[in-house]
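Session log. Operator J.P. requested a structure for one protein chain; no other inputs attached. Running the standard single-chain path with token output.
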Amino acid sequence: MENQDIKQPATIGVLVFEGFLANEIVAPLDVFTKANDNGKPLFKVLLIAETTNPYVSEEGLKVVPDLTIANCPDLDVLVVPGAMNPDNQTQNRTLMDFIRQQSQKTEYTASHCAGAFLLGESGVADGKQVVTYCGGGETLQKEYPSLLIQDDSVNAVVSDGNIISSNGNLVSYLASLELLGKMAGVTQRKQVEDELLIHKLN
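Structure written below.
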């Protein structure tokens, strides 16, 4: 069912930090920047970081953020990617405060891979079902007992209220498509899946 209350174009902020995993910011950009069948963009997608300096992914992809955390507007969706060492982010009070403050207003907050650790540290997913990278659930549960950790061997994407989480990597596309369906309806999701040639991956 389409969400008729969210304003159009909705603003989606993708958090960026040093060592981010590339697929986990590329996927939401790829999915949410596609226009509808009338050629109308439904979403404004912004890369947001502490500074507007370039950031380099784990894989070597260099990106330049659109905005800083300090001048970021209220978001409709916040996407939190993962990194190989999420302690670098969970110990960053600026990032944690940003996630906490934005999630008080977002329609959805999404995490991919170890981004779930950032949701755990910020407290925005307390009492919610979440999933993380394959093999990371036990550590996530130990560090954040208020989260309801789901089995990552059987759950690729988990949606609980306004929190959506995924295993990350290419599964970030599946999670982004699921969120797209919630926000823009099944027709837009199918159109984007066709544009991305998702059917060719089967």
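Operator note: Residues 29 and 80 are 13 Å apart (CA to CA).
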